[in-house]
Please model this.
Amino acid sequence: MNSQFRHLPSVDRVLSDERIKQLEETYPHILLVNLVRQRLEHDRLSIASGNPCPSIDEIVESISAQVYTLENPSLRLVINATGVLLHTNLGRAPLSKEATAAMDTVANGYCNLEYNLDSGVRGSRYTHIEQILCQLTGSEAALVVNNNASAVLLGLTALAKKKEVVVCRSQAVEIGGGFRIPDVMRQSGAKLIEVGTTNCTYAADYEQAINPQTAALMRIHSSNFRLMGFTHEVTFEELATIGRRNNLPVLDDLGSGCFLDTTAFGLDPEPMVQQSVAAGAGLTFFSGDKLVGSPQAGIIVGRKQLIDKLKKHPLARAVRIDKIRLAGLVATLIHYLKDEAVTKIPVWRMISATLEEIDQRARLWAKALNGLAQVVEGESMVGGGSLPGGTLPTRLVAISGKGKRKSQSMAQTLARRLRNGEPPVIGRISDNVLLLDPRSVLPEEDEVILQALRDLAASSEQTQ
Ligand SMILES: *Cc1c(COP(=O)(O)O)cnc(C)c1O
Model:
């Protein structure tokens, strides 16, 4: 028997420590007992593999630290200075004031989510949003679910289970995080028939794939990648014509989905939802939290007869949207209805920010860094699988250590200091320089970021 085991205190011994007793004034006894047991079990395994027994102080301190970690949510606000406006790892679209207010309102009490106030009987949660979506997109009907992946899954399950769906080979994409659209689609039980070659697909490829087993034709937005050089794709209008001729619905996974013309902001054209509906899509699927700028949601617009099938499908219940996000989505869509999206919805405020405004803010940020930084030209990315390769010109604050040659470790040290701040500020490192982009930071966050930058400058003075 390893003699170190004898030094390990008992559960009662740790619980009777003054510091743990103090924790008991705030936290339930049972929680502390569990934490002590888990910690001692961990120590037994550690001793068994040859490590020395920890002191009682080490044990008690680790338990206090664990209590602290448990009660401080690890999910918190961060400042996105990466220049990627729809950053999936940073929670995608920030919300408008009106959207968060609407969410707060329904969260604070009951609401008529599925209750008809006129008749006093059960209603449908979709009535709160269907008319707005039809107005905005010109569609006959609409439905919202948990996210776009579940929207596509629901659509294909309801319309194409055990049947075939024809897709273009170059559109069978992976959208990041290892998620592949074809894998999600296959979960529906539909068989994907890929047509064309990697770079070229023609109308005849679709026509030849159609047989009595075919349930639908589908377009998928190529998301984060772009075909270049010798390429050919069938336009969505052509695909819709093939669908009509063969009496098959054409489904359209737009990915981000967009109501505004991106070329008006100097960006590449992003397919708009209205265009998809006008071209004759049976169903159009898109995300709420990409370019639409709402909370996470999957939005489906299209022909009433098809939307009705989806609404009635049991899977609709499994992927339904909750009242809080529904309220946020409605409030966001109202901005488009009132033609105020560009001034109210954060992602569109960022896209439409002028280079002059950004330059001015970048100079203020650089000044707060007290000689540690300079303003340089750069590019912001929209991200979120929209506008593949599309960027917006911006001004970046390039931070390098004072008087030192730029180095990877210096850039990483600076990035870590900003990440560990309160709130954390996230930048990006390029060519051994830490870059901060004001475009992805809302002007109302400038006060906070300026303080973080002053702190960084002060701490760098000390470590010179
Ligand atoms: C982002 C994306 C999805 C998934 O949308 P979520 O809302 O994240 O579920 C599906 N298809 C395409 C083409 C996308 O870009």
User: Anything to note?
Assistant: The chain has a mean pLDDT of 94. The longest strand covers residues 373-383. Residues 147-149, 175, 181, 220-221, 223, 253, 255-256, 287, 298, 385 surround pyridoxal-5'-phosphate (CB under 6 Å). The CA atoms of residues 139 and 277 lie 6 Å apart.
